[in-house]
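quick one, 244 residues, struct below
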Amino acid sequence: MATSQTPPILKIENLKRLFGGLAALGGATLEIREKEVLGILGPNGAGKTTLINVIAGVYPATSGRIFFEGREITNLPAHRICRMGVGRTFQLAKPLEDLTLLENVMIGALFGKGKTLKKAAITAEETCEFVGLRDLQRGISRMTALEIKKMQIAHALSAAPTILFLDEVMAGLNTDETHEMIELVRKINNRGVTVGIVEHVMRVIKELTNRVVVLDWGQVIAEGPYLEVSSDPVVVSAYLGGDA
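---
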């Protein structure tokens, strides 16, 4: 578990991303410490997914800087950032329907580390076992929603990330499924992987995180332990609207 003395694995300085005249990120500054589980909170439209997309190289930053393990990665191509050790899932799962479960996971190993097909298959099999997936030759149509979410995580893990961003991977799950996913995230973190998790299920954030940051209008408005931040009048106002 990370402590306040743990060095940052990721450092973001005044990060901005404009879409036309709209600032999806308005100057976000934050650090993620090595081996912690960081909750990334905020109301809809606060810039949470945009933050992950800019870190991962999906969108270029309009301005600001990003440092990963002491190296600047601002505006590097997504494949280079992935191969350096930054992994992520997507809010909307879009598996390749014509491929099997195993083949979908293999893509992460091929893209992330550029492995041969044989080595990618071995990595994918091991990763599927780690996340609790079986029957790897079946098609996507035969998988449950929980299994597809696990497959997303396995796809990201097969690229051997040092830090993994999870974007609402527990949305739509029932209580038992959510508990299973919480335990999986703990298992990933216990492996030494730093986790940044965007989630609207507050039980998940409360149980999993060492620390949270709250975004509003693309800026960090609060950070600290969940129980402290969740009672902050500024945070309550951002979520509910109106005066605190």
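Strands lie at 8-19, 22-33, 37-41, 63-68, 71-72, 86-88, 163-167, 194-198, 211-216, 219-224.
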